[in-house]
Amino acid sequence: xxxxxxxxxxxxxxxxxxxxxxxxxxxxxxxxxxxxxxxxxxxxxxxxxxxxxxxxxxxxxxxxxxxxxxxxxxxxxxxxxxxxxxxxxxxxxxxxxxxxxxxxxxxxxxxxxxxxxxxxxxxxxxxxxxxxxxxxxxxxxxxxxxxxxxxxxxxxxxxxxxxxxxxxxxxxxxxxxxxxxxxxxxxxxxxxxxxxxxxxxxxxxxxxxxxxxxxxxxxxxxxxxxxxxxxxxxxxxxxxxxxxxxxxxxxxxxxxxxxxxxxxxxxxxxxxxxxxxxxxxxxxxxxxxxxxxxxxxxxxxxxxxxxxxxxxxxxxxxxxxxxxxxxxxxxxxxxxxxxxxxxxxxxxxxxxxxxxxxxxxxxxxxxxxxxxxxxxxxxxxxxxxxxxxxxxxxxxxxxxxxxxxxxxxxxxxxxxxxxxxxxxxxxxxxxxxxxxxxxxxxx
Length: 443
Prior knowledge:
This protein is mostly helical and 443 residues long. It contains 17 helices and 5 strands.
């Protein structure tokens, strides 16, 4: 009896430790943004609040973004600065990785309640290791944070539907929403003004469409391409579990269908549906296995036969994407570590959104300079001594030997020092002008 009781007590903390370390390892080894909004709608405005340096994108200029999350990030960074730890994005990502473990706990609780020991183990593996949940855990976008909150609230309600939990869910939703509105009141003088302006800009004026539109079936095709064979397995057991667990299934389907009706689409927009899809599919799979009169060792073999190849295959697909998307931030971090750097030029045209902005300078800011052609780069002469560009494919490549290259980008040391004073505002101003010209061309 003591041995049986000890297993869950050891198993659950072990799963949580593994889940946290795996989640934190992604931003530590692959510092990259899956969407530019992770940096320029969250980290960068917070960095500007803290240091005075950072890109202010058009969304902030016209007031369609809320300052609640950047304020929180800036507050955390101010504490880490006082402690001598700098203001690295990793501190923020580590905190939200820790908060995301609530979803893993909910996975295990549901698995245990609905399918016993096998369900506990299966849901622990899926909640801790499924790539979408792992990659999403460190994303600094409000849709991912809100998606985790949505999934956690519904899974908590699913575990035990009591009046107390309904009140808990209502408060859990109401308090962040109220805080969101109060921040708007403080910064713009009106409750939820950023929400109203956002709806007017992206739906009324259709500004979001200038960033591209996709067909109705985009999200399904995107999941098929990313999960490949995993999509068939998950979809089959999700459909199988819909009748058993209609409420979370309906919420997941509603999230996906409602966003499918909007022209501009991003994979992160439906993130809130993913944990619900995965937990319904995993619990349904566990119940299906439990119907078989196999002893526990046989069930463990079946679990391994399905979960290990499935998780392994999708992990490889996701990590390959991460490795190929962090080139510019990686080179920027190497440049920031050079003792003699006094300015970093980025003649990379439309790739500016894949940089880390000023947010990835965690100790001291290095002036950034954006150039989209040879003439604009020449106008910056003397303000920088390092340059990141398209390697030898650049129309006027530097003569210096590259310090290092990543993908098609290379970091060069141009001269030993700068001859002009730093201009911390140039990067933001040049990016805003470039974006204004780009969107004007699409109008």
